[in-house]
Structures are given as C-alpha cells and as structure tokens.
Amino acid sequence: MTAIYASVDLGGTKTALAFASAAGEMIAGRTIATRSHTGPEAVLNRIAAALNEMADEAGVRPEALGMGMPGLVDRRAGVTLFLPNLPTKWRGVPAAELLSARAQCPVHLLNDVRLATLGELTFGRGTEVKDMAFFSLGTGIGGGVVLDGKLRLGPLGAAGELGHQTIIPDGPMCGCGNRGCLETLASGPAMCAEGVRLLRSGCAPRLHELVDGVADRITPKEMAEAAEAGDAAVREAIVRAAGYLGIGVANVVTTLHPELIVLGGGVAAVGPLLFETVRETVRKRVGMLPVDGVRIEPSSLGDKAGLYGGIALAAQGGL
To answer: Which element (helix H / strand E) includes 91?
Structure first.
C-alpha cells in the first residue's frame, strides 16, 4: 500500500490539513478554525483530533506529518520560538512532541512560508529550475530561497525573510522593529489601507460601488477590479505598491540571479497589473546582470503551496 503523509498549515484564524502520497496525490483535506485564543496546547489538541478523524475516515494513518508555523521555530528540536501573530507568541512550545503523541506519527516543523517554498519547489514551478525565490504576499510578506535545487534555511531556518528587506530607510514602522520594510509597503494591509483612504476621500468611485461603500470589504482583488473599471487613483496605488515589490525582487535578482521568482499569496491575485509592474521594475533596476532569462510567475499551487510543502517535508523526514 502507498505510504500516506499528513500536512498542517497553521494560520491565525484557520488551519488547513491534508493527507497525500509522496507524489503529491491528495486523498483527504479539511479546514478547521484555529481558535488561537485558547492557547497552544488546546490548538494542537484540536488539530490532532481532526487528523485522527481524517485517518479513521480514510482508513489509513500517516507515516509522518509536516507542519507550517507562522513564525520562527527550532526545526531540529521541534519547538516554536516566536509566532508573532498568535496569543502568547508560542515561545518555547514543544509543538512537535505534543502533536506527535496525539497524532501517533513523527512531526516535523518549518516556518510556513519556507514550507510553501518547499511545496513550490517539489510540486510546482520549482520542478523546472535549480534556483528560485518565493515571495508570499498576504497579511505580511514572507519568502524562501532555493539554490542548487535545495531550500536554504540558515542556522535558524530563518533564511529568506524577503519581506523584511529595507526599501525606504525612514519608511513606515514594521512589526519587526525596522522601518521601511517591503512588508510595510506592498503587503495586503498596506495596499488596502491606501484603498480605504481613497474610498473615504471620494477618489475611488468604482471601488466604492464594488464594496457598497464598506471599507472593511476592500481587498487587493477588489482594488484590481476597480482599477480595471477606471479608478485611476486606485490603479496608481497598485502600481506604486507593485513598484516597491519590484525593487525587492530586483534586489534578490541582483544578489542571487535565480532563474525564477514566484509570487504567491492573496496579493498576487491582483494579476497582470502587479506582475507587469514588477517585471518592468526589475528590467529598470537590475543593470549588472541579464534579466531576460529571469521568469516572474504566479504560484502554480495557489493557497495550497503550504500544504504541499508539508507533504514534501514529511515524506523527506524533515530537512
């Protein structure tokens, strides 16, 4: 019988789970509420209960589990070090040990965006190249780097924090403590904050129509639709954010000269306007290297990149 592996992608509000073969053939999946306010042990207990239910329904137990954590982890010890957006920050939680005992299989932890990078490398666009960088564009901006066909993690598994490169030296304050990080300029909240300002100042009539005047309903996708429908100010805001992203991508291209840059996450749903602006910015900003061979593409796995990464991590027995 084909070995089956489990994957868990832990989020602040929702947690996705999946069972699949080492070849990436998904056989079961579900999403549960994280309920992070209940604390680490309660969250892990609910995840284990869901995994055990899935195993009973599928009639098979996973050989191992790969889990993405939204922050810094000690991947060798299986301990969370700092999950900035979860209550208590999960400092020093032996998550792998706790979950392994309840799910009855080995558990391997990795930062969630590095896990998504591993998913793209193993099952997505990364199968075509040796060197690539992955930008996850969502509530924050995370990243991952692949060189010579291997995910590069550094001593703490923190290599690839592409969203925290400085773009504007005295720019907006970032949650990491720095100013002017890429995350403060091109993340979903950064883009939407400008959309809210334009809506409330009467400069975005198409956006106003799309969200019925409700600012909380603004997402990058609605902004892209409004720009397409004729909101010049909204288009300008998207192009500005995409230009900052392009500078970040250009920095990575100059430093690593990868064959491929993958843009994933919700902000990538902005589509052609975002991608063309990034590509044009890279062409303008990179002068030392030929960039014609550097592809800048959307993730082929979409919001399931992390889940696929968890399967790869489990099947490989960790990294």
So the answer is: none
| Contact between residue 110 and residue 73 where contact means Cβ atoms under 8 Å apart | yes
Closest CA to 227 of 258, 261, 273, 185: 273
Which two three-digit tokens encode residue 168?
A: 């504007």
State whether the Cα torsion 135-138-141-143 is positive or negative: negative
In words, the CATH class of domain 129-300 is: alpha beta
pTM for the model = 0.93
The answer to whether the beta carbons of residues 31 and 46 sit under 8 Å apart is: no
Range 32-53 average pLDDT: 96
pLDDT for residue 123 is more than 80: yes
For the domain with range 4-118+304-315, which CATH number is right: 3.30.200.20, 1.20.1250.20, 3.30.420.40, 3.50.50.60?
A: 3.30.420.40
Tokens of 304: 């399931």
The pair of three-digit structure tokens given for residue 283, joined into one six-digit string: 């062409």
Q: Which residues contact 273 (CB under 8 A, 6 or more apart)?
A: 224, 227, 228, 235, 238, 239, 242
